[in-house]
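lol ok so funny story. i was supposed to be doing the assay writeup but got distracted and ended up predicting the structure for this chain instead. priorities right. anyway since i did it might as well share w the group, maybe its usefull for someone
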Amino acid sequence: MFTDKFEYLENLNTSETQNFIHAAQTKTRQQFCQSDYFDKTKQDIISQLQDDKQIPFCQEHRARMYHFHQSAEFPKGIYRVCSVATYRAGLPEWQTLFSVADFDAILGDDVYLDGVSHYVEQPEKVLLTLSCSGSDSAYTLEFDLEKQQIVDGGFHFPLGKNHVAWHDANSVWLCPAWDERQLTTSGYPRQVWLMQRGQSLAEATPVYEMATDGVMASAWRYLDAQGAPLDLIEASTSFFHKNYFYVNADNQAIKLALPSDCEVVGYLAGQLMLHLKSDWQRSKQKYLSGSLIAVKLNKGELGEAFCLFQPNAHQALEIIETTRKFVIASLLDNVSGSLKAWKWENSAWVEQHLPPFPKGAIELVDQPWGGDTVHLAASDFVTPLTLFSLDLNVMELTVLRKQPAQFDAQDIAVQQFFAKSADGTRIPYYHVGKTPTPDTPTLVYVYGGFDVPELPHYMGTIGKHWLAKGGAFVLANVRGGGEFVGWHEAAMRENKHKSVDDLLAVLEDLSTRGFSRPKKIAIQGGSNGGLVVASAFCRQPECMGALVCEVPLTDMLRYTELYAGASWIDEYGDPSDEKMRDYLTRFSPYHQLDRQKNYPSALMTTSLSDDRVHPAHALKFYAKLAEIAPETTWLYAPETGGHTGNGTQEQSADELACLLAFLAQTIGESFSGSLNYSTRISTRRPSA
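and the output, tada:
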């Protein structure tokens, strides 16, 4: 029977927990954050983040470009606007619309901007989502950008994990989450209301309510440029399964006969765009997993279906967007981005010929409403971001902005290799660095969960402070991610350990090729990736020289009891099930720490405002590991930032500089001179 002596750390509000965190944080800051190297690195990162030459990514509405901007003067940021003409000319004439810091006094809280939702037909009307300390819980305020003021009597909602979306100019879809009675066991909204301007919640129209054992309900409106608008409700019964409902003119929710694991990703020409996650047998036609399907919808009745795209074994759809007349998709081809587009012509979807586009990571960053232009960003590990505008009507690709290089990429090579996992599966990984040797300090990053792919994005800060100084970076595309069709399903629930098998195979392959060796390798992952690296660390600590474990899950027997954990049973399995509990006990990093093993240095990070993955996962793992290896175990735990690091640029720079200082001490000794960290930092080697 396992006795959890650190369960008290699940209560963040006690003086005992607060004192524990303060002592651990002080120890970490004294070790890594009081040196010339840390100070210079932090300031350099801030300077990079605040460089005016960085691309301002905008939302375009009616020939105006809206941008969220942070700077030394406005650490919490401002929302500003310029004309499309001045933006395209490269000399934007910005006008400030509001400062985020001003809302602290209004709401009596420490808030950060989490989103701005424009009502696209009248884009001066916006709903602001203001996060509490960077957490998922947020306030909603209606704001008038033209008058630059909060709308008197507008759509304003209290703190909660609410979902609020425009229905029309004078009504919203509201899924409230500020009262226990409104929540699922996962802590998300379970009710859907249609609220007219001026109504209270009691006066609004209730449209749908799901059972408390579901995950979340949300609702939104699709505006179809070729037809009538469509109102949909998504009721997630688990993380990967959901029911979709069509809302008719009488505000009745009519369930659609769709596969429970498909994703509705768009609506155009009266047709729903579906991304299938399993095979769909419909009448005499079978549509394969991973495909993009368009299906006609008429007043809640599904009609004829069309297959726009069916991936091969090396491909996967990533992002789908609709314009006025086109559907455009970014897809992965052997973990590199590419684009496809289709147009509804003569009662059929016709694939379009697109202009050549760079490989690497491709992001669809904006689609101005009512037109056929999309904004796309492209980069790879060593090529800075370029922002493009693609006019699908004339297939014209225009460069809007190029981000300046942040590091010298000369002699840095990018190569893709494959490692053989325990069951023989070939696992792709990218190696980025100069000519490697067994002494090359190597940072291996992994995520491997929730069908999320990891792509070759520009390295930026890591490039300047790690690659350019002789270190290497590895991106491990392990199972559990979304890099290929079926890649995610291969490492779920009782197969979750395969993500760890794959990571360990990559580490072994690096050593076999002579690219590094265990004591020179650090593994890094966050959230689900934190679970994967922590599990690898516990299973085979001899395979690595350091661990960076960020906002992780570590206690897999209690994860469903902590914050949003119950929503992830699809991914990990239910510990209340006897068979899964036995499996999770053998997989859970917190329960697998062993006093008989020699563990390398470990840096755990969390945010005390994280209300998605409970900070206790990091705190308890740190506490237990610190009893085994007190000299090499560290905790970085700021008050703000939430699960996604929603804070100021200085806060982001502080954490990254601390991480780099940790790497310099643990695996970076061979080029410590070039890193130039202060002698005030201990050079004690890890116990492993």
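The CA atoms of residues 519 and 545 lie 4 Å apart. The two ends are 29 Å apart (CA to CA).
back to the writeup now i swear
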